[in-house]
Amino acid sequence: MSNKQQNKNSGKQQTHDQRSTARRERLQAAREQELRAEKRRRRIVVGVSSAVVLGLCVGVAVIVNNGNSHSGGGAAAASAPVVTPANAGGPGGTVITYGNPNAPHTLDVYEDFRCPICKKFETTDGQTVQQLADNGTYKIQYHLAAFLDDNLGGKGSIQALAAAGAALNQSTADFKKFHDALYANQPSEQTDGYGDVNTLLDVAGQVPGLKTDAFVNAVKADTYLPWAQKVAEAFNTSGVNGTPTMKLDGKQLTLFDNAGNPITAQQFTALVQQTAGTK
Prior knowledge:
Blueprint: H1 3-54, E1 57-58, H2 74-79, E2 88-89, E3 95-98, E4 106-112, H3 116-134, E5 139-145, H4 147-152, H5 156-170, H6 172-184, H7 197-204, H8 213-220, H9 225-236, E6 242-243, E7 245-248, E8 251-252, H10 265-276
Parallel strand pairs: 4-5
Antiparallel strand pairs: 1-6, 2-3, 3-5, 4-7, 7-8
Helix pairs in contact: 5-6, 5-8, 5-9
């Protein structure tokens, strides 16, 4: 074989070897990328599972599906005037008070309407929480969040909060009934069901007397969306990192047992009495 032919064959072999090496490197890189992605997915699952055991919807961005922030209500809400509902109170009108304002104790409640752990606690203890306010043991101060819109994508938290503002504008009693109905009918947090105005209006229809023309118009027009943004921002600066959180006279209450189950109604009552020094 001539030197020319040998050089030609050698060149072909070298090119083949280079292509094979490049192909192996691409496959290896793809595999390493998939392994990194799998580790990230596992960290997310572990983080969410730990939050469930602790009985909290954690107010830290776990995953954002679309890269957009919704807890502030978006640019439209930011540019619209803030209309504060009648019956709102606290700094900047960001707190909703239920019960006798002169009650000897104060229960601060931190919630997100999209939070499934909040629903879990509400289902077990919500009636008792209200009864203790109704009998004058304490007044409730609601501090409402919308961080799950950031964590999961969507706008259900902020839209539900804005609709709650429309209920609050009618009366504190209407707000409380709508609050309870939102948890009773809460869709999966993954579906962002409350991002649909019609779903919110359907829930409102279950509260006698709530679905007035003024309420419907306010919900459809996003009248209280800028206020909801302001309320959510107040939560974000409160120092509370998860929902539900409750503080009686500033002392945080343990709402879940070690297995992640809500304490019983009797245990909640005893805890309030002990913390308030009335037991």
